[in-house]
Design brief:
mainly alpha, 2 domains
């Protein structure tokens, strides 16, 4: 990974100016959506903080109903229509029971207050972690201006929490392995990003972290069973085919889904062939992550590889999930750049990807994100393999 673009034009002064302009634009858009809304419905006819209505309506329903009701589309849609005066389409619930514990307190506040609190409480810890990884005076400004940050806020999504757990968990991998595992295991609320953690921890022989991971998963699952029994888990697994159906039929806009499955469907592949494409990419992603974790001791390389692999391996990812690239970007910026300009080029590319990927997909029907992830992983493997050969020849 020795080649790369000349990024000398990105001086601190220019980065500060451009980042400030981006943040100002984000704030203008957010204020426009909020202050022109009727109730919680904005000018687009969608809820302000679009997907947040899923979390908020779920929290309201949990107060007087068994949790399995969240998976009944008619029930959660009725609650959403009450919040939006009947002017809202269905926003279905697909999360496992541990996420119910996380969003449970949202009902204590009105919709807008809950959204603001949710954003702040999940964003600040992420910014702290990113500032620790990338120790630069502009780090907070750079990541506030990150298009992935805006995507997550405007969707009211949980990407900040996911990115924090990944970033903090991987940063603590060798420093506090048990705490690292507890953080990574808490990704059980978004299991499609947690599954890849287990094989890489085994490959890297991080057994204390693996123990912490298992303890966290056990704690989250046990707590939900103590509170609610196994019925919500049964409902969750029964719901998975419906979630898959939504992904494959276009009920959810393909251009917002930066996965191999969506990319194949967008260029006209059948559902069956698209699943095969996704499977091949998933196997490649898992194999790549295992190879890197087995052969590298560089935590920055391992972190960026795991995050990119997790995004490539899962068919369940949306444009707002690209915010989890933030710790990977921080790692790529922190790595020594002598002879490694390409890493900083990748950091810049990943920084613009949450804006670039859906824009390109919408205009060309091509999902560039999974293609980029494949290229990145191939280059990581090549780099590690070259270093391994050099070490063996010494």
């Amino acid at each position: 990974m020795s080649a790369g673009f000349n990024l000398s034009f990105l001086t601190s002064k220019r980065v500060r100016a451009w980042a400030s302009i981006a943040i100002a634009c984000y704030l203008l858009i957010l204020f426009a959506l909020v202050f022109t809304a009727e109730g919680i419905i904005d000018l687009r006819g969608k809820p302000v903080a679009t997907d947040f209505i899923t979390f908020y309506s779920a929290s309201k329903l949990l107060q007087k109903n068994p949790p399995s009701i969240l998976y009944k589309t008619s029930s959660i849609h009725e609650e959403q229509k009450l919040l939006a005066n009947d002017r809202v389409e269905l926003f279905a619930w697909h999360y496992p029971p541990p996420f119910m514990l996380i969003i449970y307190p949202l009902h204590l506040f009105n919709y807008y207050s809950a959204w603001i609190i949710w954003t702040i409480v999940t964003l600040i810890p992420l910014l702290v972690v990113l500032s620790i990884i990338y120790r630069h005076s502009l780090s907070v400004l750079v990541f506030l201006a990150f298009p992935g940050t805006f995507q997550n806020i405007i969707h009211g999504q949980n990407g900040f929490l996911t990115a924090f757990l990944l970033g903090a968990g991987l940063w603590l991998l060798d420093r506090k392995p048990l705490i690292s595992g507890l953080l990574l295991g808490s990704l059980v609320y978004k299991p499609h990003f947690a599954i890849l953690v287990v094989p890489v921890l085994i490959a890297g022989k991080h057994y204390k972290t693996l123990a912490g991971f298992a303890a966290a998963v056990t704690l989250w699952v046990t707590t939900t069973i103590i509170f609610w029994g196994i019925s919500p888990w049964s409902a969750f697994f029964d719901n998975l085919p419906f979630a898959g159906y939504l992904l494959e039929t276009g009920a959810l806009p393909f251009f917002k889904i930066p996965t191999p499955l969506s990319g194949a469907l967008m260029i006209g592949f059948s559902a069956q062939l698209s699943r095969i494409v996704q499977l091949i990419c998933s196997v490649f992603a898992i194999t790549s992550a295992i190879y890197v974790w087995r052969n590298s001791n560089d935590n920055y390389i391992k972190t960026s590889t795991l995050i990119v692999s997790a995004l490539l391996a899962s068919p369940f990812a949306f444009d707002y999930d690209l915010v989890i690239l933030a710790p990977a970007i921080a790692c790529l910026l922190t790595q020594p750049v002598k002879g490694n300009k390409l890493r900083r080029s990748w950091a810049l590319f990943f920084w613009i990807l949450p804006f670039l990927a859906p824009t390109v997909a919408l205009t060309t029907n091509i999902q560039i994100a999974p293609l980029a992830f494949v290229v990145f992983l191939l280059l990581q493997i090549k780099s590690i393999a070259s270093l391994t050969v050099i070490a063996e020849n010494r």
